[in-house]
């Protein structure tokens, strides 16, 4: 296999495979590789094996728009999503270009050749090698695969049972007829609780702070109708756009009138759980809707598990672990045979390796994000991140398509380097006002956003379509150049 490529994609998950499909469609003879640190396609959907693992975005928008999601469930299970990504890779011939067990441990851009040198560690035998590439598209996700967020709890060594982190769920783990305490209030916790409750003796969700939880139908009712009267392809496209617009509308209304949104979510929780249930203690957060990501549950399965007495919630501060379970600060003892620490992720936002330019370390926190895609003063690289208020794939796909647009533009004009340059003296702002703990823990390490376009990190799909796909490539902030020596030409784009 060649050691010099036109593009290298880091990560063979949903984003990486989707971007590779876009690439081979536009550049059928292009030289590219997909680097995957693990031994399988699927990314998140191969790594996470905890019970009930599923999407928290609807599959019409989490799936690819060029390859309609074949299932009927609104929120699909992890194994089905993994199979979908694998089938897509096979259909487009991407699997032949994947280098497994290949972890990028360093990236250095050489301005004399306008090529990236990637140092790769073989995760099987520990050996190292290097490859070169004109462009890098990092689709490595936004969290560390080798480590979850696992905060310290006093008395951990005193607990008599098993302590399990969902990111490292043991294979064939038997929890039948066990008392289980799940620590956490995010998407992982609300997925685990009703699933574990099916066979456990009882499941208690232990949360410091409540989360907004909303129910979704297991199947899209509108699509069930359009599937009967329209072609499958047309029905998919109509409903995909419907879901994009609906999600955007819900988010905008929540931000415009958070008090009304809070009342509506609370009203639905009371309807699901009954007037006597303490909704304001367990399902009414102190923050506004969409300051953190909303949790969705299919057919209200979380509420149903509580109503059946299979699950319950304890809200408050943990004092310590004890032999019999978890002791809360108010003196409540949560008895447990197993404690599941669904306490979150360790973030890296696509870059858990050092980046350098001509050997000089590049610190992304000192730079600005351009169109949510590139980082100022960093050439020929895009790190894919998704939306905080919508499906990950929507933005990931736009960023992959934007890089391909850049590559075509540069090939036609003979350029070998593109780099955003921020204006002098621009005001620096945090890249997002998102309040989730996993995000706030690393926000100081992330690029900044500015005070004007194209340096604003706008969480809006319609806006990004306009600026990443429809707008001209030319921009005063983008600097194009060509190496002095003759560069290897980019592959011809497909007609």
UniProtKB/TrEMBL annotation:
The keyword Flavoprotein applies. It comes from the Bacteria. Its cofactor is FAD. Keywords: FAD, Flavoprotein, Monooxygenase, Oxidoreductase. One of its GO terms (molecular function) is monooxygenase activity. InterPro entries: FAD-binding_MO (IPR051820), FAD/NAD-bd_sf (IPR036188), Flavin_mOase-like (IPR020946). Signal peptide: none annotated. Belongs to the FAD-binding monooxygenase family. This is Flavin-binding monooxygenase. It comes from Algimonas porphyrae.
């Amino acid at each position: 296999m060649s050691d010099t490529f036109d593009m290298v994609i880091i990560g063979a998950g949903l984003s990486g495979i989707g971007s590779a499909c876009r690439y081979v469609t536009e550049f059928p003879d292009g030289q590219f590789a997909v680097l995957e640190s693990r031994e399988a396609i699927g990314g998140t959907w191969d790594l996470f094996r905890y019970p009930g693992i599923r999407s928290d975005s609807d599959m019409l928008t989490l799936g690819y728009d060029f390859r309609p999601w074949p299932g009927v469930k609104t929120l699909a299970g992890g194994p089905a999503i993994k199979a979908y990504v694998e089938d897509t890779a096979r259909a487009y011939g991407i699997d032949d270009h994947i280098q497994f067990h290949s972890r990028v441990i360093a990236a250095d851009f050489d301005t004399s050749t306008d090529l990236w040198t990637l140092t790769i560690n073989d995760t099987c035998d520990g050996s190292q090698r290097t490859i070169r590439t004109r462009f890098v598209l990092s689709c490595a996700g936004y969290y560390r695969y080798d480590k979850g967020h696992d905060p310290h709890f006093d008395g951990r060594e005193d607990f008599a049972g098993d302590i399990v982190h969902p990111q490292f769920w043991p294979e064939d783990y038997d929890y039948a007829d066990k008392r289980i305490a799940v620590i956490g209030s995010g998407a992982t916790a609300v997925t685990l609780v009703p699933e574990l409750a099916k066979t456990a003796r009882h499941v208690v969700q232990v949360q410091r702070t409540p989360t907004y939880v909303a129910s979704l139908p297991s199947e899209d009712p509108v699509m069930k109708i359009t599937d009967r009267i329209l072609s499958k392809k047309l029905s998919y496209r109509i409903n995909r756009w419907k879901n994009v617009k609906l999600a955007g509308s819900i988010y905008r209304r929540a931000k415009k009138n958070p008090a009304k949104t809070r009342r509506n979510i609370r009203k639905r929780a009371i309807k699901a759980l009954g007037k006597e249930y303490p909704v304001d203690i367990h399902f009414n957060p102190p923050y506004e809707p969409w300051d953190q990501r909303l949790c969705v549950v299919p057919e209200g399965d979380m509420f149903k598990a509580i109503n059946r007495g299979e699950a319950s919630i304890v809200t408050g501060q943990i004092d310590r672990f004890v032999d019999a379970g978890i002791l809360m600060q108010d003196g409540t003892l949560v008895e447990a045979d197993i404690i599941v620490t669904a306490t979150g992720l360790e973030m890296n936002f696509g870059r858990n390796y050092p980046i350098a330019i001509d050997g000089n370390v590049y610190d992304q926190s000192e730079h600005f994000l351009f169109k949510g895609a590139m980082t100022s003063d960093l050439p020929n690289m895009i790190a894919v991140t998704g939306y905080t208020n919508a499906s990950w794939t929507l933005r990931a796909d736009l960023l992959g398509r934007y890089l391909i647009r850049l590559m075509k533009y540069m090939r036609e004009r003979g350029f070998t380097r593109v780099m955003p340059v921020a204006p002098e003296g621009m005001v620096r702002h945090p890249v997002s006002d998102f309040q989730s703990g996993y995000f706030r823990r690393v926000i100081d390490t992330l690029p900044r956003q500015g005070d004007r376009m194209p340096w604003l990190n706008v969480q809006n799909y319609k806006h990004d379509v306009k600026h990443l796909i429809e707008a001209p490539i030319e921009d005063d902030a983008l600097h194009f150049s060509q190496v002095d020596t003759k560069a290897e030409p980019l592959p011809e784009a497909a007609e």
